[in-house]
Structures are given as C-alpha cells and as structure tokens.
C-alpha cells in the first residue's frame, strides 16, 4: 500500500451508449430483481437532512436502508440470488459467510423460501448480529478472524457438501438485487445529481451505479456515483490504480460491514467502468458521522452505513471539485453492537471537542483536588469521571496522578479549560481531545 490510499482515485467516465461495453449486470436485470422483491422488502424512506445541507452547501437526502428488513440492504441481493435457485439447489441448502448483515439477509431469505442455511461468521462478531442471524433460523459457525477467512471456509464447505454458496457481493444476482436501491432512489428523488455510499466488496456500489447510470443515460443527463471506503480497509483505490484486484495485507476498521480485503471480480468490473470516484475516510470521521446522525437525524446507523456521511463531513465532494446541487447518501445498515456504539459515541464526542480527558501529576497535599474542581467548574465544564492514585511505577513518594474525564462544548472551550488549569500551575496531559 502507498499513501495514495488517502486520496480519491478518478475513474473512467461512463461511455456513451454507442460504445458502452457489455457488463455482467444490466438495467433489465435490476428491474427484474425489483419485481421479484415486491412484497418481500421494505421501500425504505428518503429523509432530508437540513443539517448536512447547511454544512455542505448541497441539498442532502438520506436513503435509509438502516430501516430495511434485517437492518440493512443485504436482504435484497440475498433474496434475489436464492429465489432463483432450482428446486434441486434449494434442497441442498445454502452456505454463506459474513460479519453480520449478509448473514442476516441470507437467514431472512432462507426462512421465507424454506431453505436450510449455514452461515460462517468471524470470531468476535458483534453479539447482536450473531443473535439475530440465529433467531432467523440459520445455523451459525464461528470461524476465522475476518470476513475473508470466513468466506474461504464457507467455500470449502460448499465444495465438500454440495450446498449452494451465496457470495455476499461477487455474484450477478446479488448485484442486481442491491441495485434495486438505485431504482427506488430515483423514483423518490428524480433530480438527484450525486449519490454516495459505502463500498466493501463492491456489490452495493456496482448495483446502484448500474441502475443510476443507465437511468441517467435514458434521460440524457449525468448522475455522479461516489464510493466511500474506510481508509484502513480501502482495497479499491490500489486495485483501480493497478486495473487489477489488489488484496490488502491488513484490514482494521470499526466499519466491520465493509472490512473486506479484496474487491469482488464482478463488482470491480462494473465499478471501474461506471463509478466516478472512490474516496476514503478516517476512523475519527466515522465516529463523528455516527454521532451526527444520532443527534441531528435521530437515526441509528452502523459505521459501514455512515461512511457516506463521513465523506460529506470531511469535505470530500469539495476535494473532488464537485458542486452538487442535490446529493443522496445511502445509509446501508443500522446493525451496530450497543457496546461499540457507546465507544464510538465517546470517540465522536472527543473528535468534536466535546469530551476531554486529561492526566495531571500533583503534590500529595490537601486542597489540590479542590482547586482543580473549582477551575473546571468556573470554566463551565462538567466532570464525568475521576481516577486518583498514589501508586505506580512512574510516581515518586509524595506524588499523586489524577485523570479527569469531562464534557466540554467544543475545541475552543476545551482549550479554555486547559489554559485555565495551566494558569493555576497545573500541567494537564491530554489523553483525548
């Protein structure tokens, strides 16, 4: 990997209809998938975000697939893939691998279609996703430390038993099912000119790009489609730069739903032709986006589902030189472990300067803690936690170490609190900002 992972990677503009090469999924495939999904999935709402619009200068709308059945868009592709199996294939059962959302999609589809499902999930998978997958009736096997290892084991099981392997993204039916989001979005927001969404293996981005670009061509206009990856799990930028699949050596992100180390071949074929750009966002931006959606939109979204919002908050459209009049962001899922949500909220508040943790060394004498409390109170900050210790390898006799957690009102307020503590002779070491 190189530092270019932090930069956007421009891609080929969609060719005109006279030279457009044949791709593995067409608009007709997606329209057929939409018919198959009628009565199975929810047509999720599109919500206007005045707050994001104010920050970005664009009219911003959120496509709420976090409110979809099983909590994400994945049920669309899973159902289309499994509904098209022959009776003999259905009788053999299906096997899949996922960090959670595809697992639940497959489990829901299997229950509706009367198919036996076996799902491989990585060790350490979020408990709510594990529990929900089991509750939908699937057999769950924990294997490997990431999605790629679980995928390999699921494929081995399929080869050994004859079960049908339902890949999470590298399949034409899966891509067509995910692409139905694009059809819905254009019905709900006909004049959208820019669409952002997360990308892991690429099934969602490839499907939506196929639908949106084809519809735009029919209308004689352009709609930009932008993919967004977590910068610590960004396999598409190097792959697009090399025009070949480039696996990552390591993937590490809170956005487990898109923590995929290698693009899918079919999605890659579509994305390199149709998608305008793929950009990356930081972990801090993901945390900030989740807090933003909770506070301003009243929506619970998992990190993988919030990457598009993170991209807007980080000004990625401006970096690309895009002046979007009407922007849509696909919130792809809302399945987040409450424990992770707690950590992310705290990190998001810290990134926004609204949560501050400091550590100070004090003389062990009466009144020191009272002075600190007074300074913080007069600075209008709120203490939420205090750790006070006299014992430790770095402490001398007569010293005390104190760690204080406090709520602040932004970066300027945090600096004011720190300045006030320094003015009293203390030397606060910032643990979080």
TrEMBL record:
Domain called ACT: residue spans: 357-433
Region (Disordered): 1-22
EC number(s) recorded for this UniProt protein: 4.3.1.19
Cofactor or coenzyme needed: pyridoxal 5'-phosphate
Catalytic activity: L-threonine = 2-oxobutanoate + NH4(+)
Enzyme type, top EC level: lyase
Alphabetic keyword roster: Lyase, Pyridoxal phosphate
Pfam families named among the record's database cross-references: PALP
GO molecular function: L-serine ammonia-lyase activity; threonine deaminase activity
Bias type Polar residues, positions: 10-22
One GO BP: L-threonine catabolic process
Family: Belongs to the serine/threonine dehydratase family.
Function per UniProt: Catalyzes the anaerobic formation of alpha-ketobutyrate and ammonia from threonine in a two-step reaction. The first step involved a dehydration of threonine and a production of enamine intermediates (aminocrotonate), which tautomerizes to its imine form (iminobutyrate). Both intermediates are unstable and short-lived. The second step is the nonenzymatic hydrolysis of the enamine/imine intermediates to form 2-ketobutyrate and free ammonia. In the low water environment of the cell, the second step is accelerated by RidA.
NCBIfam families named in the record: ilvA_1Cterm
Protein's name in the database: threonine ammonia-lyase
